[in-house]
Amino acid sequence: MAYVKKAACPLNCWDSCGLMVTIENDRVIKVEGDPDHPITKGKICGRGRMLEKRTNSKLRLLHPMKKINGTFKEISWEQALDEIADRLKEIKECYGTTAVLHSHDYANNGILKNLDQRFFNCYGGVTELYGSLCWGSGIEAQKWDFGNALSHEPEDIFNSKNIVVWGRNVARTNMHLYEKLLEAKKRGAKLFVIDPIYHATAKIADQFISIKPGMDGILAAGIMKEMLRLGLEDRTFIEQYTYGFQDLLKLLHSISLETVSEMTEVPLEVITQLAGVYADKPVSTYMGLGLQRYKNGGNTIRLIDALVAVSGNIGVPGGGANYANLQVGQSFAYDQLTLPERRQNHRLFSIMKQAEEVLSARDPEIKMIMVTCGNPITQVPDSRMVKKAFKSVETLVVMDQYMTDTAKLADYILPVTTAFEEEDFYFSSMYHHYVNYGPKLVSAPGEAKPDLWIWTQLANRLGFGKDFDFSRDEWLKMTLKPLEQMGLTLEKLKQKHTFELPVSKVPWQDRKFQTPTGKFEFTSILGQQKGKTGLLTLAVPDESKWSNPSLAEQYPYNLLTIHPMRSNHSQNYHLLNGHVKLKVEVAENIAQNLGLQNGDYVRVWNDRGEVKGYVSVLGTLHPDTINIDEGIWEEFGGPVNNLTSSRESDNGLGSTLYDCLVNLEKVN
Ligand SMILES: Nc1nc2c(c(=O)[nH]1)N[C@H]1C(S)=C(S)[C@@H](COP(=O)(O)OP(=O)(O)OC[C@H]3O[C@@H](n4cnc5c(=O)[nH]c(N)nc54)[C@H](O)[C@@H]3O)O[C@H]1N2
Ligand SMILES: Nc1nc2c(c(=O)[nH]1)N[C@H]1C(S)=C(S)[C@@H](COP(=O)(O)OP(=O)(O)OC[C@H]3O[C@@H](n4cnc5c(=O)[nH]c(N)nc54)[C@H](O)[C@@H]3O)O[C@H]1N2
Ligand code: SF4
Ligand SMILES: [Mo]
C-alpha cells in the first residue's frame, strides 16, 4: 500500500521546499510539494520531482570500489574503510594531517552534512577550502557594508512599491520568489529586471534593462549620480547612519553619465528613469549571484548596496538589499557540531584555485584528496587544471551517489545515500527562514551508506570514535541547542515538519549595523583591516575591452555559464530523458556576423580550453554575449569550466566564473 510522508528538499537552492513523498514497498514513487509549507505551499520544481529518479536510478553507486590497474573493482566496506583509515594514519605520521585536502561544495543542505568538518578537525586538521564559487564576493561585500548579509522575509515584498530583480534568474532558480513577484504585481507593484538575458522573469517585468555583463556596479553608480543631481537621495539616512559618503561622492564625480551609459550599454534616459524608480519608495532589490561572479564582483554588490542606502531603502518594510540570508544558518550551533578547537594543524586553499594550490603545495605536498558533496571536475573553474591536480595525488577518495566526472578519477569511491534514505533537517541561508525536517523514508539501495556512517566508521578506526558516538537525535538536538529555550526543539520540528527561525524579518530596522563603525559603510573599515583600501571603485571585469583590449580583440564574446533549468548543477544531466546536447546560446548579432543558424555545430574556445556544441540563436541575449548552461558532463560535451578562469574576485573570496571572454567558430 502506498502512503505519503512529509519531507524536505535537500538541494542547494534558494527555496528550501517542503515535500510530500509517496512511498510504496520501501520505494519512493513520487515527489510532490507540501501544501502546508508556509512559504513553498505545495509547489516544487522539476529538480525536486527528479529526486525520485535520483533515488531510484539504476545508475546509483551501490558498492565501495577501488581502482586497480585502471579499472574499478567492488570491494567490501571493511576493506575500503580499513585501507582509507590506514592511509590517513600513514599520512598523519609521515607528512602531517594537512597533506590531506578536503574538497567539497554544498550539494546537500542537511545540517549533519557539516559533520565532515568534525571528522577532519578531530583527525588533526586538514587543508580546507576558503571562499565560495557561488556567492563569495557578494557575501564579503555585504559584510563590509552592513556587517552581515541579510534578507527581508518573503512576505515583505508586498510592502514594496517598486521591485528590482538585479541579475537573479528568478523563474528558473527561485520559483517561490517568482510567485511572489506575480502576486506583488497584481497588488500594484512595478517590476524592473536588470540582466544581460531577457529571461522568463524579464517577460513579466514592467521594464527590462539589458546590460553588458559585469557592468552593474557602474550602472548603480550612474543611478546614484542621477539621484544626487535631482536631489532624490535620502539625506537623513546618509547623514545619520552611514560612513564614508564623501568618498562615494568623489567617486561619482570621477565618471560622467555618458561614460556610464557607454560602458553599461544602458541608454542615458533609462539611467535617469531608474533614479526615479529608486526614489519612489519603498523599493526592494533582489540581487542574484550571477551578478558577482566577476573580478569586480564584490565592488558590484557594494555599489548596489550603496544605491539602496543612498535612496533610503535600508531597514524599511518593502525595501532591502536582498542578496543572501545568513541569519538562517547563523541560528544553529556549528561549533558544537564541528569542534574547531580540536584541530591542531590547518591550512587553507582558495576554493577557486584549489587545483593550482594542489599542484604547487609543499610542506607538505597534498597526498590525498577526499571529495564530499561536490563534483569539482565539472564545477570548479579551469577544469583541465582541476583534472591535472586531482590526477596528481596519490589517493583520491570520492563519496558520491553517482559515477560523476570526479568519481571517475577516484582511487576509492564510497557510495552514499540520498536525502530520503537518512534523517536530517534542511535549510537554506539564501531566501526564507524556515527549517524543514527530513525523515528517513526508505532503505538505501545496495550498500550505500550515509556520509555520517562513513565518518563514524573512519573515526573508530582512527581512535576518535567517541567523538562520533551519538544517535541522530542527539546530533540534531546538539545543533538546535541555541533555539531550545524558545521552544524550537527537535520534537516540535518532527511534529510540525517545519518551523520559523527567530530571525529579523526586516533587517536593519534599528539602524544598528554590524560594522566597526556601527553604520552602513560606503568606505569599509573591515576592508581596510583586511589590507584593502575599503573604498568603492569603478572597477570593470578582468576580461573586458577596458582592462585587456588585446584579449578582447582575440576573444570578442562574453561567455555566461548560468545555472541549468532542469538540473541542480551537474546533478541531473545523466538522468534526463532523451539525448543531452551541449547548447551554445548566442546573441543575434553574433549569429548575424558569423552567419550562424540554429543547430550549427560550433567550437567555443579561449586560451584555457574549448567545448563544442550546437547553436541556438537567442534574440534575448545582450549583444556579443554567449551562454552555455553550467554543469554538463564530459560525455555530453562539457564541462564548460574548460573555459572559465580560476581567478578570484576583488575581495578574494568569490569566483570569476562569468568574467570570461571566448571566441566561436563553426566546425563540421
Ligand atoms: N534550476 C536551477 N536552480 C538553481 C540552481 C541550479 O543549478 N538550477 N542552483 C542553485 C544555486 S547553487 C544558486 S547559487 C542559485 C543561483 O541563482 P541565480 O543567481 O538566479 O542564477 P545564476 O545562474 O547563478 O545567475 C544567473 C543570472 O545572472 C545573470 N547575470 C549574469 N551576469 C550578469 C551581470 O553581469 N549582470 C546582471 N545584471 N546579471 C547577470 C544571468 O543572466 C542570469 O539571469 O540558483 C539555485 N537554483
Ligand atoms: N561555470 C560555472 N560553474 C559553476 C557555477 C556556474 O554558475 N557556472 N555555479 C557555481 C555554484 S553557484 C555552485 S553552488 C557550485 C556547485 O558545485 P557542486 O556542489 O560541486 O555541484 P553539483 O553538481 O551539485 O555536485 C554535487 C555532487 O555532490 C553529490 N551529492 C549530493 N548529495 C550528496 C550527499 O549527501 N553526500 C555526498 N557525499 N555527495 C552528495 C552529487 O551527486 C553531485 O555529484 O558550482 C559552481 N560552478
Ligand atoms: S530544487 Fe529548489 S525549488 Fe526545486 S524543489 Fe528543491 S528547494 Fe524547491
Ligand atoms: Mo550556488
TrEMBL record:
Residues 2-59 form the 4Fe-4S Mo/W bis-MGD-type domain. InterPro entries: Asp_de-COase-like_dom_sf (IPR009010), MoPterin_dinucl-bd_dom (IPR006657), Mopterin_OxRdtase (IPR006656), Mopterin_OxRdtase_4Fe-4S_dom (IPR006963), Mopterin_OxRdtase_prok_CS (IPR006655), Prok_Mopterin_Oxidored (IPR050612). Keywords: Iron, Iron-sulfur, Metal-binding, Molybdenum, Oxidoreductase. One of its GO terms (molecular function) is oxidoreductase activity. Its cofactor is Mo-bis(molybdopterin guanine dinucleotide). SMART domains: Molybdop_Fe4S4. The keyword Oxidoreductase applies. The lineage of its organism: Bacteria, Bacillati, Bacillota, Bacilli, Bacillales. The keyword Transcription does not apply. It comes from the Bacteria. This is Molybdopterin-dependent oxidoreductase. It comes from Neobacillus thermocopriae. Belongs to the prokaryotic molybdopterin-containing oxidoreductase family.
